[in-house]
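User: Can you write out an input/output pair for a complex, sequences first and structure second?

Assistant: Here is one pair. Inputs:
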Amino acid sequence: MQRRGFLKLCGAAGLGFAAPVGPSSISRAAAAKADPSNYEGPYYVVFNASGGWDTTYLMDPKGVNELNRLYKEGDILTEGNHRLAPNAAHIEAGMSNEDFFKKYGNELLVLNGLDYSVNNHSPCSRYMATGKLDSLAYPTFAALAAACKGPEVPLAFLTFGNYSSTGNLVPMARVPYLNSLNNLANADGINGSARNPYHDGFVIDRIERALQQQMKARISQARLSRVERSQSMLYAAQLNSKALERVTPFVPKTSPKEQLSRQADIALASFKAGVCVSANLNIGTFDSHKDNDIDQMKLLPQLLAGVDYFVRRAEELEIRDKLVFVIQSEMGRTPKYNNNNGKDHWSVGSVMFMGRGIQGDRVIGATDEKQFLVPIDPKTLSTDKEEGVRVRPEHIHAQLRTLAGIESHEFSKQFPLKVPEQETLKNLWG
Amino acid sequence: MFDRRRLLFAELFLVLLVASCQFGAVAISTAQGNGKNKKQSGASSPKPSPIDPGDRPEVDHRGPGCFVVDNFFADEVWAKVGERTCLKCHNAKGDASGSEFVLRDPARDRTKRDEVLRHNRVAFAKMASTLADGKSRLLRKIAGDLDHGGKQVLKPDSTGYKILARFVRRVSGKPDDGPAVADYDAPPFFDGVEMMPPQRLLRRITLSLAARLPTKDERAAVERDGLEAVNSILDSVMKDDAFYDRLQEAFNDILLVRGYDGGGEGALSYEHFKTRLWYQDRSPRKGLSPEKQRELFPYSHPKMIAYTKLVNDYREGMLREPLELIAHIVRNERPFTEIVTADYIMVSPYTARGYGVYDELQDKFNDPDDPFEFIPTKIKSLTDRNGRKVQESATGFFPHAGLLSSFQYLKRYPTTETNRNRLRVRMYFLHFLGIDLMQLAPRVNDAAAITAQYEIPTMQAADCVVCHKVMDPVAGLLQDYYVVDGKGIYGPRKDGWYKDMFAPGLENEGLPDNERWRSLQWLGERTAKDPRFPVAMVEHVWYILTGRKPLLPPEDIDDPLFSAKRRAYRVQRDETERIADVFVEADFNLKVAFKELVQSPYYRVDGLASTVNNPRRRAELDDVGLVRLLTPEQLERKLTAVFGQEWGRLTHRESKFKILYGGIDSKAVTERMTDPSGAMGAIQRIMSNDVACKNVALDFSREPSDRLLFPNIDLSVVPGGDAEAKARIRQAIVHLHQRLLGREHATDHPEVERTYELFAGIVGDAKAAKGLEKVGSYSCDRVDGKRLDDPNYTLRAWRGVVTYLLRQHDFLYE
């Protein structure tokens, strides 16, 4: 049976998994682009500032009411339509706000005044990742996008931490080391060597055909749902894994020191090879209950440097225009310092977006001088204290689904966000 | 009037604890074992087995037909509105207990569920038919009129309100203009579900719990006595050391206790245990300059290797200590409540040295040089490094309270000046009462405004108080374990316990002053009596055996499959509670919980008798069936059991595959992956190739009677020969299917045929190919340095067959 015919059969049976058997060199990787199951983007990247970032030191500067000790209101900078907290003078490493906004302000969409609704790490992380506060069942946006757009690729949803629920729609993949990808590239070769296979080629072909025939035979059998799903996922995982050999050419020879950059290299190699749809990157911990300014001045530049590294490497790999970035944290920090010079949890914050389909140089929503959120008119996206809505993660996720073109996908319908029509954020992406 | 927001915490608990009524469920049928390897339908059990629900507490319903309560009330009104909304306040102890509309909780006693539902229907009907200004009181109250204490609970355009409106019409005899209620006559829950043949159940049990294949005697016993034999075999299995290794590994998956910062002796503070680094006195490098250390005793020096092993064994013993407590309790069939009440800890000869109690204990060890022989002991109340008493104790001993006071457990979940022991409280509820406080966080309208409005929001703001009045008293019970610098765990806060928190206690009971020194024992005693404790422990056993947590109740009442999902949850919950009852009756012997669950239909489900097309029925059965992807550790153990030697690449310390294959490190990676990614698929291919490579030629090199894989065939038997040759090959395949896959296939089974075709196809291809060597491969088919002859390519073909079988669902899943 032809592979695509078999996939069709799987799809008819509600399975929907299978994959390319890919070549093993750059030239053959290029050829793989012709393969319809070789995922070519867009790629979704979620940066998590784990622990709760201080937005007043980044995209929602205040400088009043002793909200910030490192600058005053008059020090606040602008870059296009963005207002940013100055921090170049306070950081030792990483990327300053000044440099980041100068470089990316034109592409950046900032939403201030996001209502996380609660202020505990666990539910907030879940809420920001899925758009649903009161359910453990919902998939993260990254997982949902992977399930909808590329369940047939071997590392469809790559995660490096933070809340990563898949809703049982797609397997999650953890690849902790860059070299891990090389180790897996040639599973049929002794010690990963394609020149020294375990079996002669015709033996492997026979094995693959036997497994395929077995899978085909099972489709018509009465099976429990769990058995159906797991047999399908297993078959797909093994078959799809052959595509991992396409990754090898894109794995850098050396690994950077920075946490986010290492994650970026793994994700980018996987994107470029067409074996990944979405990646969940993570850096922390921003939970600065003590010495807020020291921690935030260390971590925010690391986060921005990580984003910058990602973009630069994506340019080198010629996939920058296929990337969608969500840069978020699960909560904000209080408008006042505690007795330990720290800031505690705050249920109001911000989120940033950038990339394909997103009009930059825009700021939507706001917080007031005491860091309370100002509601917005969902139709005009302008602030409206009296009649506006409090923008919550489900509003954002509904739009992310639209941006990804998966809002009507069967998987999305399984996990409805139930945003009333009158609260839909119109033209959020410009 | 009361503020509904004050009830949110109660709501949280109610959602988790107050089970909903499930009618039309629970007619759980199980198969009667007869010792034969036939699939058995749960529906066709001829007579009750020893584990049949016939032996269980009676449940007074079998399906919708037996109900006087109509389906609409039970499925719609109660399931979607009553229990989720009204019951929170309108119960005998709730804020609306003084109203005329007082409901009862059908989940309190599953044997009286019908009776309670009938009571509730009467209450609803009365409210529905009573008019206020011409409109049903039920609808007016729920919309916030008539001074409803809960204010507006449902908006008129909400699904819940519409359900009540339909109920009002039906009660008043008016035509119900809503969509037809599904006329679904629920079959017994396991109807049409096939149960596993006893021999396969036996294999599952021994592999899962004892890391081995069944013995001949066990197989014979099951062949003879069917499921009856499983009970006694389980008794034997749960005496194996391997079971306790598995038990510890599994409880670490739940508690993650090995993942504390610093590792090993980091759980002990130098301030209280100046002996914690006792091993340093044994270092061969002691007293030498750094240069001399490297020169005389490099790490490769035998003395340094031995010393490193000693240190590692000590640290491993420290990490393992709380899990050894669990093993000790279960092994000795002590009440499992001791995990929160044990007035002792477990120590090994090495860890006893760390605690400074070795001298007094050394005669109690069977082998004082065994780093992993653990015995129970009590340690004295703590002193500082100079011997001054720092811990009050009426007995002179540390007030041990099982895991609650374990140095390792408390170290794993440290306090900070911000969380003030609340992380520990969350873990307490999760691990010992089965409640995730953060699971369904109640949303508030403006959390930031509330935080800013009150001086002490956690004590003053209703939205915060609902949770904190439950959490913070327990946090106060941990006040003497308030070390925020990471050095050990014992030490009260210098400025005294926080005044801006609710006083120490549990629920509505305050901690008496004279119990302060033993506050965790006080907590443990109450925990052991909490009815949620046994259910939580059974849920842990559920997780251990199935690899996943029990179902949660469905949340979305707009989901057309809500009722089906709710039934699936309810029936499973009933089974959990039933086992919890048996567990309690057995004086909290955890082995009983294992035995009950292993023999439960949920563990024995094997498949469907026929395809299920009804979406509702499919939803009911969606989570049924074990179907668990083996963890790296389980897969390694299975490989060892089947092939007689370990593979190792999934679990060795230097393994790069462990995390990739979904393993955990108990610290940063804490959840096992349950579905295989492409990366895991690649590892499966590597494993199947490599394990076949390492074992097939080796097996053929042995005498047939010593072979594990190919005892009845040799390499000269080729397909395409006479009938006898074909028959021998098929018999060899049957043996492989049995050993690797646990399948008892007949020689003419389609899967045997498929494997035969694979073998024959490979040999045929090889025959047609040119230039193939007549010996096995250099890398895989050498034994004692010599490549085995393979003139017919059968050796390599069998290797291909084993690779094929190792990639199968039957091998990689449980």
